[in-house]
Amino acid sequence: MKRGLKQKFFFLFSTMFGVIFIIVSVSIYNLLRIKSTTDTLMADNYSSIGATSAMATIVDKQNTNIVNFINTKKDEYRKDFYILNGEFYKQYIFQSNNITEKGESNGNNNVRTDYDTFMEKAVKVFKGEDRSAEENLTIYMKEVQPQYMSLKENLKYIENLNEEGLLNKQQNLKDRVDLSMYTMVFLSIILMIFTINIFIRYINKFLEPIVILKEDIINSKQSGFLHKTRVLSDDEVGLLAKEFNKMNEKINEFKNSTLGKIMEEKNKSEAIVESISDPIIVLDENFRIVSLNDCCEKEFKLSLSIVRNRHILEAITNGELFDCISSFIKYGEDKASKIISIENTTYDVTLCYFMDIDKKRRGLIVYFHNITEIKRVETMKQEFISSLSHEIKTPLTSLIMGASILEESDIDNNYKKIVKTISDDGDKILTLINNFLRIHEIESYNNLLNIDSFSIIQLIEGCLDGFYTLADSKEIKILTEYDEDIPRITGDMEKLGWVINNLLSNAIKYSNNEATVKVTVRKDKNNIEVDVKDNGIGISKEDHPKIFDKFYRGVDDTEGTGLGLALSKELIELHKGCIECESKLGEGSLFRIILPIGGDINEET
């Protein structure tokens, strides 16, 4: 009967499962035995020890009550004595029903006898209210205390019995554990030897045809797919060898018709390019035109028959486009895009490579997406927002100025509070509008950075000058720590200053009085890192992923606009840097700005 790989491996794994099942079964049986012994040990002896200890504590308290009664004759000690009597019998009944060791029953009886006598003698003291303290003390010393000591000794005797029982059972448990361990180790060794023998025998038998098939496939590849594989079995491996031989025959047939296939694939690719409704140009490694679609011919008034094999600048004379392509190849990116204007038309130009069958770059695809209309709408939106903001800011400024004048005038304090609220809310609205305009300015395609080289430390020191007064009003200490030889950086000094001002403002605003704000600047390889750290209210774990989102504010934030950190993030990213936050609620926050040293920031702005 033929046995396929499935049946063979099923037998192999069934054997392995059987071995594992035997080991697991023996292990579970021994663990259950150990558990049974452990449960008995914990449930009986420890309960007896606990009950005995509780009775001893109760007797001590009763003895103390007797002494206190003799000295003070207060009735509360007698009442407490009789209450404890009930608790003692409760523990005694439990102990009497939980006898675990030989001799423990006699000990319980002795405890009962001693306790009854102790109670009898104690009652004699409590009823002697007419006797003097010296007389009661004499009765206590001669009759009560000896009985108390005898009772304590009997309780200690029961406790010692159970402790000895615990030790004996612990030794028994250890013996069982040792026996179980030796049994499991011996059984595991025997079964592992058996399993290894089975595996060595059958794995070699199963894998031999596969190894031979692998060698034949390698030889077939080296011989140009002329070598045939050997069919050694009738299972799946043998079937695979037969199918590989058939594939070799098909490959040899295909080799004779490769040119036709290549032409077919070429026609498919050209049909795909032609079907795209936006202009596309295909270039080789030397920026020479290989192909372009009909839309490109119409858009740029070109003819493929004329411009084929010509440089891209001979077809489209736009230096910005050539710079974009050159930069893309220079920096080895997989894909890039840039907004470029060509003859009063704005395009979103996307660049990517096309690969050959060996995944090697063979040329470049330039895709032009006409966004002129989108750009026109964007410009209209910018003009509308700027005009609307101006129309809002003008009366708002007048309102704030009027409120400030009223606030400084001699008016009732209640009205002053209302005027101050108007002034503060006006400032918040004005700040919100300014931040909104900044974000809109950054998001627009017309945004440019005023690039210059400057000292980051001088920038930070200039920003700090504007916050010392505010910090002093809250008794906040501002500390600075700068590495030596911090190099100058390249960027927009005004925009980076706004980011640092925003971080310093937040650090002081959300810090408690007498707190500390620390600014650190250090160099890390090719970057400059600026840390602004405070020990204020901190940020909750739930708010962390959202703090750089626009208009997002924490639950407890009633003053912010939700735009400051979002704007800061976008400004830093314009400088090819990043901003990070580390914070814990109630312990403060650390904001870290990472900026590159040097670099051409204007490439993508």
UniProtKB/TrEMBL annotation:
<keyword id="KW-0597">Phosphoprotein</keyword>
<dbReference type="GO" id="GO:0000155">
    <property type="term" value="F:phosphorelay sensor kinase activity"/>
</dbReference>
<dbReference type="InterPro" id="IPR050351">
    <property type="entry name" value="BphY/WalK/GraS-like"/>
</dbReference>
<dbReference type="GO" id="GO:0030295">
    <property type="term" value="F:protein kinase activator activity"/>
</dbReference>
<protein>
    <recommendedName>
        <fullName>histidine kinase</fullName>
        <ecNumber>2.7.13.3</ecNumber>
    </recommendedName>
</protein>
<keyword id="KW-0067">ATP-binding</keyword>
<dbReference type="InterPro" id="IPR005467">
    <property type="entry name" value="His_kinase_dom"/>
</dbReference>
<dbReference type="InterPro" id="IPR036097">
    <property type="entry name" value="HisK_dim/P_sf"/>
</dbReference>
<dbReference type="GO" id="GO:0000156">
    <property type="term" value="F:phosphorelay response regulator activity"/>
</dbReference>
<keyword id="KW-0902">Two-component regulatory system</keyword>
<dbReference type="Pfam" id="PF00512">
    <property type="entry name" value="HisKA"/>
</dbReference>
<keyword id="KW-0808">Transferase</keyword>
<keyword id="KW-1003">Cell membrane</keyword>
<feature type="transmembrane region" description="Helical">
    <location>
        <begin position="9"/>
        <end position="32"/>
    </location>
</feature>
<dbReference type="InterPro" id="IPR035965">
    <property type="entry name" value="PAS-like_dom_sf"/>
</dbReference>
<keyword id="KW-0472">Membrane</keyword>
<feature type="transmembrane region" description="Helical">
    <location>
        <begin position="179"/>
        <end position="200"/>
    </location>
</feature>
<dbReference type="InterPro" id="IPR036890">
    <property type="entry name" value="HATPase_C_sf"/>
</dbReference>
<dbReference type="InterPro" id="IPR003594">
    <property type="entry name" value="HATPase_dom"/>
</dbReference>
<keyword id="KW-0418">Kinase</keyword>
<keyword id="KW-1133">Transmembrane helix</keyword>
<dbReference type="GO" id="GO:0005524">
    <property type="term" value="F:ATP binding"/>
</dbReference>
<feature type="domain" description="Histidine kinase">
    <location>
        <begin position="387"/>
        <end position="599"/>
    </location>
</feature>
<dbReference type="Pfam" id="PF02518">
    <property type="entry name" value="HATPase_c"/>
</dbReference>
<dbReference type="InterPro" id="IPR003661">
    <property type="entry name" value="HisK_dim/P_dom"/>
</dbReference>
<dbReference type="GO" id="GO:0005886">
    <property type="term" value="C:plasma membrane"/>
</dbReference>
<keyword id="KW-0812">Transmembrane</keyword>
<dbReference type="GO" id="GO:0007234">
    <property type="term" value="P:osmosensory signaling via phosphorelay pathway"/>
</dbReference>
<keyword id="KW-0547">Nucleotide-binding</keyword>
<dbReference type="InterPro" id="IPR004358">
    <property type="entry name" value="Sig_transdc_His_kin-like_C"/>
</dbReference>
